[in-house]
Design goal:
By secondary structure, the chain is of the alpha/beta class. The protein contains 14 helices and ten strands. The radius of gyration is 22 Å and the shape is globular. The structure holds L-rhamnitol (RNT) and zinc ion. The site of zinc ion has 5 residues, from loops.
């Protein structure tokens, strides 16, 4: 029996089992195909970028030195092509400003322009993919004292405001060219290592900077602005200026997207319950799906209970259009193409598992106060043949169903990655 025949047979049985539970597997797969996940470019090169920056700063860290990381835009695109060929569905790609292609010329961050992303836009267009974007507020001499948009130094603050303005224009150009809005996400590292005496002044500076950056109205069909808070970073343990509360308030009052990064809260705090709560007050949200291990360590996303719960929240029919799913992890200790592939396949798997639930039945039981049925069904669902539906979905999308994707990554490693000195 060929593998595809085995997968077909297993799928037929799975379809029946799910139907008995009141779940239509065909509908679930159709819904899944319409949910894009935005792959972050920075897993491909440990958040290095193409400016020749020596060191990753901003209180984030990629540990490990696995050989073969991408050094140029062409290499990064080739690596992403490989990963995308192993992930079912059509997705998006998320760039940082420091990945501008400047033809070897030094271009200041406040002078980056759409032309520096023409190569990326052409590439995305050829793949029918949308792009997302981020201004880069780290790994730069003007960010070395740990303050950017919240700086008291007017020259520095103005420089970073101009960078933000330039990046929104790039986002809009990408969105316009690709016919799908680019989410341009602002994250800054600003904060204090030790107890501040004044927590207010830098936040006022940040608010002023954001208002200046967002002053120009941009068509929401082209660009959407998001703001990402966090609890702490390396070197900003005592106070992060752009905290969650700061940005939630900012996003609500300015009608912006709030970005929830799964690694940016207290270690036991999940973003699961923040999604629906925030959506009552902000128009849309951006997720940075990540996996913190003891701290904001940006581990590759795996199929954890937390990931599954996130997927359940975002895959609800009225949510999918309002939640932009982005990934944010960077592991330099394993093959980077594999890291992208593992993390994104897990995200898609979690979405499929979420879509394979008898939502109506669960909601009815809950509304009737029958929490016994709710719990019983939730647990039975965990052992239904979800893997058979996943494999069928992969076959239909023309990607490897199981671990054989790794053979392709290994072959790519042997022929392409190992040739990079
Ligand atoms: C940092 C934030 C931010 C970055 C990327 C590179 O803690 O999560 O999103 O990881 O922009
Ligand atoms: Zn993030």
């Amino acid at each position: 029996m060929s593998d595809t025949t085995k997968i077909d047979k297993a799928y037929e049985l799975a379809r029946e089992r799910y139907a008995e539970m009141g779940v239509d597997t065909e509908k679930a797969m159709a819904a899944l195909a319409s949910i894009p996940v935005s792959l972050h470019c920075w897993q491909g090169d440990d958040v290095g970028g193409f400016e020749g920056a020596g060191e990753l700063t901003g209180g984030i860290q990629a540990t490990g030195n696995y050989p073969g990381k991408a050094r140029t835009a062409d290499e990064l695109r080739a690596d992403a092509d490989k990963a995308l060929s192993l992930i079912p569905g059509t997705h998006r790609f998320n760039l940082h400003a420091m990945y501008a292609e400047t033809g070897g010329k030094k271009v200041e961050r406040d002078e980056v322009a759409p032309e520096h992303f023409a190569g990326w836009i052409d590439w995305a267009k050829s793949k029918g993919m949308g792009l997302d974007f981020n201004p880069s507020y780290f790994s730069h001499p003007l960010a070395d004292d740990g303050f950017t948009l919240s700086s008291r130094d007017e020259a520095k603050r103005a420089y970073w405001v101009r960078h933000g303005i330039a990046c929104r224009k790039i986002g809009a150009a990408m969105g316009k060219a690709l016919g799908t809005p680019t989410v341009t996400n602002v994250w800054i590292p600003d904060g204090f290592k030790d107890t501040p005496a004044d927590r207010e002044t830098p936040r006022r500076q940040l608010m002023k900077s954001l208002d200046e950056m967002f002053a120009e109205e941009i068509d929401a069909a082209h660009n959407l602005d998001a703001v990402e808070g966090k609890l702490f970073g390396i070197g900003s343990e005592s106070c992060v200026i752009g905290s969650h509360e700061f940005y939630l308030g900012y996003a609500i009052s300015r009608n912006k997207l709030v970005c929830l990064d799964a690694g940016h809260y207290h270690p036991t705090e999940s973003i699961v319950d923040k999604i629906g709560a925030a959506l009552m007050f902000v128009p849309e949200i951006l997720l940075h799906v990540s996996r913190g291990v003891r701290w904001d360590s940006d581990h590759v996303v795996t199929l954890t209970d937390d990931l599954r719960a996130i997927a359940e929240e975002v895959s609800l029919p009225d949510r999918v259009k309002r939640v932009h799913i982005g990934l944010d992890f960077f592991d330099a200790s394993i093959n980077r193409v594999a890291a992208w592939t593992i993390g994104t396949r897990c995200m898609v798997k979690a979405l499929l598992a979420a879509l394979l639930r008898p939502l109506e039945t669960l909601h009815e039981a809950e509304a009737a106060g029958d929490f016994t049925t709710r719990l019983a069904l939730q647990e039975e669902l965990k052992t239904l043949p979800f893997g058979a539906v996943w494999e069928a979905y992969c076959v239909r999308k023309g990607v490897p169903a199981g671990a054989e994707w790794l053979d392709e990554v290994r072959a790519y490693e042997a022929t392409v990655l190992s040739a990079r000195a």
